[in-house]
């Protein structure tokens, strides 16, 4: 049953749930055709992709999940919320749906979770679309001092500094400087976290900040397994969380990489530039399909 705060005109999708040891994980599965799987970050949920899905589902099968603790998924008190667990849950969903030849769309914290799957199953991921993301720890960056071992990336640093503000204040600050976000839309991000007045340190989205540097380092060491997957990077140039230096690191990493920068946009391109993002994703998938068809004919 959908919560009463959810506008079903804005988010008009059928809900599905996968029962996991951690709880019930919510996902949507819309449209038919080549498969696009979308992973959100912290502290958003599949709602972030709603405008992309409304358009892309006309020609593609679009799947977007809510990680445990986020959106319409369960928020158990006794789960650790570390990314290794999120990655295992995502892999369980992929196995449940028996998905192959997917385009994997990732955003901030969703990137390492999605890349963990791609590293283990590169044969199932034919292309990647990345929006403002990272996939490494900050453990060796001493400028962050004694707390650095708890910070998994730029968003981790930001979240750590906001542990004593309310969930509502966190969402408001994350969207500061973005395109004007209507209060009715902002409301969906706040309500999906649970009690808007709870302090951030009580939220599931903050719990994964502790003790995960080792997992990030392990993931980064295996990164070459996905280095040859064709990748489209869509990057907001005014992101206050993730820098241009991170973009340069990704550009140097992927062997076949296309980069589109949105100079006047911030961290949430899915909200600010939904139509353009949708068009770039669709064109990228079509171009990759054409290249594969030509390569098959040549062989």
From TrEMBL:
<dbReference type="GO" id="GO:0016020">
    <property type="term" value="C:membrane"/>
</dbReference>
<dbReference type="InterPro" id="IPR000073">
    <property type="entry name" value="AB_hydrolase_1"/>
</dbReference>
<dbReference type="InterPro" id="IPR050266">
    <property type="entry name" value="AB_hydrolase_sf"/>
</dbReference>
<feature type="domain" description="AB hydrolase-1">
    <location>
        <begin position="34"/>
        <end position="274"/>
    </location>
</feature>
<protein>
    <submittedName>
        <fullName>Alpha/beta hydrolase</fullName>
    </submittedName>
</protein>
<dbReference type="Pfam" id="PF00561">
    <property type="entry name" value="Abhydrolase_1"/>
</dbReference>
<keyword id="KW-0378">Hydrolase</keyword>
<dbReference type="InterPro" id="IPR029058">
    <property type="entry name" value="AB_hydrolase_fold"/>
</dbReference>
<dbReference type="GO" id="GO:0016787">
    <property type="term" value="F:hydrolase activity"/>
</dbReference>
<dbReference type="InterPro" id="IPR000639">
    <property type="entry name" value="Epox_hydrolase-like"/>
</dbReference>
């Amino acid at each position: 049953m959908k919560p009463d705060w959810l506008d079903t005109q804005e988010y008009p999708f059928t809900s599905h749930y996968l029962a996991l040891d951690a709880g019930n994980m919510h996902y949507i599965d819309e449209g038919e055709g080549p498969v696009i799987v979308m992973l959100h970050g912290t502290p958003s949920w599949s709602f972030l992709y709603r405008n992309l899905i409304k358009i892309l589902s006309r020609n593609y099968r679009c799947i977007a999940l809510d990680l445990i603790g986020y959106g319409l998924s369960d928020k158990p008190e006794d789960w650790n919320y570390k990314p290794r667990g999120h990655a295992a849950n995502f892999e369980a969903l992929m196995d449940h749906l028996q998905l192959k030849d997917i385009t994997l769309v990732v955003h901030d914290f969703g990137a390492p979770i999605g890349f963990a799957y791609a590293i283990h199953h590169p044969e199932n991921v034919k292309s990647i679309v990345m929006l403002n993301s990272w996939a490494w720890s900050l453990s060796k960056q001493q400028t962050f001092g004694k707390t650095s071992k708890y910070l998994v990336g730029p968003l981790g640093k930001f979240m750590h500094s906001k542990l004593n503000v309310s969930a509502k204040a966190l969402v408001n600050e994350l969207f500061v400087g973005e395109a004007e976000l209507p209060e009715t839309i902002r409301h969906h991000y706040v309500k999906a976290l649970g009690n808007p007045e709870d302090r951030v340190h009580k939220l599931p989205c903050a719990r994964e900040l502790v003790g995960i540097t080792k997992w990030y380092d392990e993931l980064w060491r295996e990164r070459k397994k996905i280095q040859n997957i064709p990748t489209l990077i869509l990057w907001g140039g005014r992101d206050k969380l993730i820098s241009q230096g991170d973009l340069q690191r990704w550009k140097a990493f992927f062997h076949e990489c296309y980069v589109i920068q949105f100079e006047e946009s911030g961290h949430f391109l899915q909200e600010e530039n939904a139509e353009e993002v949708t068009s770039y994703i669709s064109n990228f998938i079509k171009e990759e399909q054409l290249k594969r068809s030509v390569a098959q004919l040549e062989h």
